[in-house]
Amino acid sequence: MMPIEREQYGSVADLVDLALAHGYQLQWLSQASQDDWDEFESAHALGYLRHLQAHPDDTEVRARADRQRTWRLHGWRGVLGMVYLTLVLPL
Fold first, then answer.
1. Which of the 8 DSSP states describes residue 27?
2. What average pLDDT does the chain have?
3. How does pLDDT run across 40-64, given as a tens digit for each residue?
4. Cα distance between residue 9 and residue 89, in whole Å
5. How high is the pLDDT of residue 3?
6. How does 53-70 read in b/e, with b if 16+ C-beta sit within 10 Å?
């Protein structure tokens, strides 16, 4: 069902550790909330919906929309998110 199994997604801590291992220092971190992520995904889905309302016979876009919805609701939601890191190199 999912293109990548849940176990393969790392955590925010894993991402920061990776940056530190490559010589960066963490200056700032913020993470999108579930509401932020839902808004982003809903806007993405709305694009498919609008296209399909204008082109109801577009089976390729319908398949993409169905796949995106399935992945979102049965896989990514609550796992996949967005984190913003401000990284600096030491002087």
1. E
2. 89
3. 899 999 999 999 999 999 999 999 9
4. 26
5. 63
6. eeeeeeeeeeeebeeeee
Length reported for the chain: 91
Cα separation, 25 vs 86, whole angstroms: 9
Shortest CA distance to 63 belongs to which of 4, 40, 5, 71?
A: 71
Determine the pLDDT at residue 1. 54
Task: List the one residue out of 77, 71, 88 whose CA is nearest residue 34.
Answer: 77
Q: b/e map of 77-87 (b: 16 or more CB within 10 Å)?
A: eeeeeeeeeee
Can you give the residue ranges of every domain in the chain?
6-88
Kindly give, in sequence order, each residue whose CB lies less than 8 Å from that of residue 19, ignoring residues fewer than 6 positions away.
26, 85, 87
pLDDT digits (tens, 9 = 90+) for 7-25: 777 889 999 999 999 999 9
